[in-house]
What we know:
about 300 residues, mainly alpha, Farnesyl Diphosphate Synthase, about 70% helix
Amino acid sequence: xxxxxxxxxxxxxxxxxxxxxxxxxxxxxxxxxxxxxxxxxxxxxxxxxxxxxxxxxxxxxxxxxxxxxxxxxxxxxxxxxxxxxxxxxxxxxxxxxxxxxxxxxxxxxxxxxxxxxxxxxxxxxxxxxxxxxxxxxxxxxxxxxxxxxxxxxxxxxxxxxxxxxxxxxxxxxxxxxxxxxxxxxxxxxxxxxxxxxxxxxxxxxxxxxxxxxxxxxxxxxxxxxxxxxxxxxxxxxxxxxxxxxxxxxxxxxxxxxxxxxxxxxxxxxxxxxxxxxxxxxxxxxxxxxxxxxxxxxxx
Length: 299
């Protein structure tokens, strides 16, 4: 395990337990015909993944001394959106993948119809969590969280980036286009994680510039690391098929820059991200470690 992962291990383990515990309660299987749907949601959402996005929410909320349980709730909402996107991305109509998080993809383990409904339900659950008073007593805070997550997940964010990614299989993209694609597909949801911390801390919009800069650079560094893992990683560690982008003829940061230049660019982005936090003290240490982990991880 990389050094960054070793330093983050207690934090990663804690957030995994918190997210699994919270979502496990919400997704208790009812004794009626909906049971298969809940079981599918549990299969996809529990016991897997790095939980990096929820940890980013917790780390951002830490800057403003937000109650941890409230931060975990927001992190769970982000994770629901992330998992829904993975379920749908893996479908035959999209990437047609067979392996996710080290086990068969949801449509393989169940069926396509159940997978679609499970993704839809997790998407809806995310906003149900954010709209609950338990997340924040101020309805204006809750509305802003809902609006920003919707924006990050929709056509101006993650879904728009996925559409661009589908088109990339038949188009030759340059570096600018790949960067834009990934800023939407991967970066928008990471951006929300930092935005959520500021919203929970009631930071005015004009006071969020540095957090947005951090999110932008970490998101791109994270994607470059993913591209490198797709080229160099081991399926047993990544938990998903490797070499997929190359096989589909898609342009990536690695195909456009080469491995060494891409690696140097990721390291530069991490340094820049950490510099955005220079006005914060020890309360930003977790964000600093997450930035470093983004490029040091092996899965």
